[in-house]
Amino acid sequence: MGLLYGCALHGAIDTLLAVPDVIPIAHSTAGCSYYRAKRRGAGAAIPATNTQERHIIFGGASRLREELRNAAQIVNGQLYAVVSGCSAEIVGDDMDAMVREFTGSGKDAVYISAPGIRGDASAGYEIAVKSLLGETWEEPRRDGKLVNVWGIIPWTHCGWLAELYALSDYFAKIGYRVNTLFGPEASLDNWRRVSSAAINLALTRHGLPAARYVAERVGGEAVSPGLFPLGAQGEFALASILGADTAAAEASRRKLDWQFAQSARFYYERVAQRTFSVVSDAARALAKAVFLTEELGLAPQSVVITDASEGEALPELAEFAAEHGARRGRPVRLLFSDTESEIACFLAEHGGEITVSDVETSAPVLTQSSFGAAGAERLMEEVFAQAAALPSNLLVRRDEN
Amino acid sequence: MIRPADREKRLGLITAYYGAPEALLGEYAAGNARQRMRTFTQSAEDEISRAVEELRRIPCRGELCSPADDSAIIIHGPRGCAMAGGDSGTKLTEKDSIMGSEKKLRAEIHRVYNASRPKRIFVVTTPVVAINNDDVLTVCAELTGSLGIDILPVVTTGFKNKSPENGIDYARRALGLDAAAEIREPEASAREGLLAGRRVYIALPPGRAAAYIRAVSSGSGGNIAGVTLGYADKTEATEEVLRLLAGLGLPVHVANNQDYELTNLLKSAVPDLFVGETDNVLTAARLGIACVNVSVTPPEAFADAAETALGYSGFARRLAEAPGMPARYSLRALLRPGGWYIKPEAKL
Fold this sequence. Notes:
The complex is a heterodimer.
Chain A: H1 8-17, E1 22-27, H2 32-40, H3 53-58, H4 61-74, E2 79-84, H5 86-91, H6 95-103, E3 109-113, H7 121-136, E4 143-150, H8 160-173, E5 177-178, H9 188-192, E6 197-202, H10 208-218, E7 221-223, H11 231-242, H12 247-271, E8 275-280, H13 282-294, E9 299-305, H14 315-328, E10 333-336, H15 340-350, E11 354-357, H16 372-389
Parallel strand pairs in A: 1-2, 2-3, 4-5, 4-6, 6-7, 8-9, 8-11, 9-10
Chain B: H1 7-10, E1 17-19, H2 21-29, E2 36-38, H3 47-57, E3 59-60, E4 63-64, E5 71-76, E6 88-89, H4 94-99, H5 102-116, E7 120-125, H6 127-132, H7 136-147, E8 150-154, H8 166-174, E9 199-204, H9 206-219, E10 223-229, H10 236-248, E11 252-254, H11 259-269, E12 273-276, H12 278-285, E13 290-293, H13 302-311, H14 314-321, H15 325-328, H16 331-335, E14 342-344
Parallel strand pairs in B: 5-6, 5-7, 7-8, 9-10, 9-12, 10-11, 12-13
Antiparallel strand pairs in B: 1-11, 2-14, 3-4
Helix pairs in contact in B: 2-10, 3-8, 5-7, 9-10
């Protein structure tokens, strides 16, 4: 039990590690870069200065200089990215100067200021993405079928790799190509092609700053489906904003129709009229809640948002809670928290009969993409599996809170 | 709050060394074990996560300090620090770093107290709090009085010590216990002839390393291919390991989670079996080496685990083909002798 997501430093390192040509170098105290590997299971032992008391008192710039020099000898990379932790920023190490000195020796390097005090992993994602863009801009050669996908944060979002692959497959079906920026096929060459893409798609609100940044700087269109594209409806929404052929979405819709049909008996014996809770990041939580209510006919009991604070403006979520609160005559409870113990306490009091969660707390999640019809099928399976474990007689189910 | 004497001073603990065990034995015998430093390091554990681990393990006045036993651990620092393993964190921001973090700490203690009514709350401090010299002790003392439960500060900094082992002492000190005494590890199980003709690399802290060296060599007939100690100090366990290695004519390597150094040594040693804790096991497995993870394997199950690991190392072989750090190390760097960038530390 602890916090689900790390800090800006962790988000930045995760983002950089998902681009194979980039070598992140943490300039921070020991532990900072270790925690993320330990927690997320990524296990990459990146170069890290592991600064000591003497570096806090006298400055750690010289320690960074020797780390950079040796890292270049030991670890092959096209771009070395120095990511600063809290201690280096608070004591004011001149990392910019060290990186400039290093680049003077013919190596490519960038300084990325992402101390943990600057925010959560999504803040680190945004900082790292903008820094990488700054290093890789090229004159745009407009490609009307190339799409940059923003807003899926490597290792932070559960099933991120599966989701990126699923999106890539879908775009291929509708005649577009995803510019692969993260994962095994990503490269700095692809980052140089960012400026050529006609479409900058922000799948979550964390992708909006990058999509808008690129669009404002080199043109191209920044678009967002609004609701995360879950289910056949999500596929239609994506095709619609691109003006693309909807044949693939229609095929997905037909497949899902068959899945609904073959689940119907089980549904009416074990699932119908159940209440549910969702635990997820804001984008996926709302998409799942909408699917579960509008397509699966379940009643929302509560929603836990793991990547936003209560003060953040999430109007669609507030609207969903208000609408269903009015429809059911009892409030749909909302919790904004990434603290596991707090979430567990909340669900013990306000949890529905079925809880769908895409929060990775222990075992690695490999295939869980929330995108499209396949995401909807996985969600239905999750609901059905939980419902199968509940008493079949709906009359004995526990009272709702 | 009195800080416990660092293990570096109290026990002559060192975290960096590669060379002859006889020379290190000589330094300890003369009482002047020299600190060395690395000019290249990789992600490594610090005292904070080790303190949290210890809080969950040691008895708190007869009970275990886990949430199930009515204790809560708050990591007082930016949100990333809570990934060290606490139950919650104060999630400090830039504003808190400038304006002070006491308000956030009070609020989190109250939230945790109201949510779960623990019998005690540990407040584990972090680099930002230490650098800014935020007053944690007063907040803990005041709330101990007003809430009527123990609010116990664990004054870790993340940068004052070289070894994460110090975290154990900070945790114990928070409970009014003495610094941890040397623990004699239980013997690992052995089976005659099990490892005959096999080369085994061991990467463990001194006490455990000594137990597994005995189980591998005298107990199971294996050959020691090399040893990495998580640290060395002036304890009997370190001395035993150094004497064993001296007898075998092998160098000793001292490192805390240094992936490149271990990769380099393993590529030279070419062991059939690796015995270590999780982080080092990941390094060895990425080279395709069969591994026993003693973090999760009890000593009495070692012989069975070794036999199974040697017979079924498919995952490690598969992992060796996956991208990762070993593939990123330059060939030139992998051909250099181990620990080439470890040098004596200048005294300030």
